[in-house]
Design a protein that fits this description.
- The chain has about 350 residues and is α/β, with parallel strands linked by helices.
- Helix content is about 30%, strand content about 15%.
- Helix 1 packs parallel to helix 12 and helix 6 crosses helix 8.
- The mean pLDDT is about 95.
């Protein structure tokens, strides 16, 4: 059903003024509630968690008043994660700023505690930055970038032979917006692309990026071809420890593993062993089981590992893209139409 009354949209993480205005301009029925002085300050562009904040009692009361009046939330409230359902009883829809909100929603039991609320993800917003991160990792190791940097620092000139990506195989696990974009980029470099997922892709432009599709239950059959293994799947009961010692052993010697999904997809001790033994040529890791990555993690000191602080997806243009998605969804919400990127509460993605 469409909404005839005013809809209070509370913005729960820092957003630039021009994007706040774009949201307000979507429809006259929208009242935007935005109080940046009550929000966690961003530590970098498009930071949706923010630095810790100590609100005064009056500021806290003001924020709780805003939560109680909200019909829609732009982002989850990082300052009231535990008691959000009680403080925001009128919220009917929360737009996340991340694609991987499923585990968080499940951990907080929001689905049962907020039975009248729908949740939408930011799927697609991070596809381009993450595809570029995967390309960075592949080229870094195939073109011997660590060697170049090392030799330049000692002013040492010695020619060598790297390799190129043409005809090399990339196995991409997870064929959402990110996995499909990684596949498209790989095809642009004349690579061979094998997609691994739970369901076949719809026919059309996205399926053209694949040379082959296999179901995730048959993942092991293609691992011997995985010169580059890209993990772009969500963390679910099915994907936890998807890549363990047996799977790593099946990969060709010198292979590159790239994890842009979630840390729990990989058995980290087994990965560290495969890397230090030289079976794997390198790894580009954007996500870890424990974040921030502990100081005693072996990955920090490995010359064949690129450690990214869960920043492969972030871009200084992210807030614009999230606002684009939110404005489209806001129009749909007002008209009672299905929302884009609806979180499946059973599958958690």
């Amino acid at each position: 059903m469409s909404h005839s009354k005013m809809v209070n949209v509370l913005i729960a993480s820092f957003l630039e003024e021009q994007h706040v205005q774009r949201i307000a301009d979507v429809d006259p029925r929208i009242k935007v509630l935005y109080e940046p002085n009550l929000l966690r300050p961003p530590r970098y562009t498009a930071d949706h968690v923010g630095a810790l904040i100590n609100r005064s009692p009056s500021q806290e009361a003001q924020w709780k008043q805003l939560l109680s009046s909200a019909d829609v939330l732009f982002d989850f409230d990082q300052t009231h994660r535990e008691d959000l359902p009680e403080l925001a009883p009128n919220v009917r829809w929360i737009q996340g700023t991340s694609s991987g909100i499923g585990q968080f929603v499940a951990t907080m039991h929001y689905a049962t505690r907020m039975p009248n609320t729908v949740f939408t993800k930011a799927s697609g917003v991070h596809a381009q930055p993450l595809a570029e991160f995967c390309l960075l990792v592949m080229l870094m190791f195939r073109k011997s970038l660590p060697r170049m940097v090392r030799e330049q620092s000692r002013k040492h000139w010695e020619r060598y032979a790297g390799t190129d990506l043409k005809g090399r195989t990339a196995v991409i696990v997870g064929l959402g917006a990110v996995g499909r974009e990684v596949g498209r980029v790989c095809k642009a470099l004349n690579m061979r692309v094998i997609g691994v997922g739970r369901t076949h892709l719809p026919t059309g432009s996205f399926s053209l990026a694949l040379d082959e599709f296999v179901h995730v239950k048959d993942l092991r059959t293609v691992l011997p071809q995985a010169e580059h293994l890209v993990l772009a799947a969500p963390h679910t009961a099915e994907t936890e420890d998807l890549i363990g010692p047996n799977e790593l052993a099946l990969m060709p010697r010198g292979a590159i593993l790239i994890n842009i999904g979630r840390g729990r997809l990989v058995n980290e001790p087994a990965l560290a062993t495969a890397l230090s033994a030289g079976h794997l040529g390198g790894a580009g890791l954007d996500v870890f089981v424990e974040e921030p990555l502990p100081k005693d993690s072996p990955f920090w000191d490995m010359p064949n590992v690129l450690v990214s602080p869960h920043s492969g997806s972030t871009s200084d243009r992210e807030n614009k893209r999230i606002t684009d998605l939110f404005c489209e969804n806001l129009t749909r919400f007002l008209e009672g139409q299905p929302l884009i990127n609806l979180l499946d509460l059973n599958r958690l993605y």
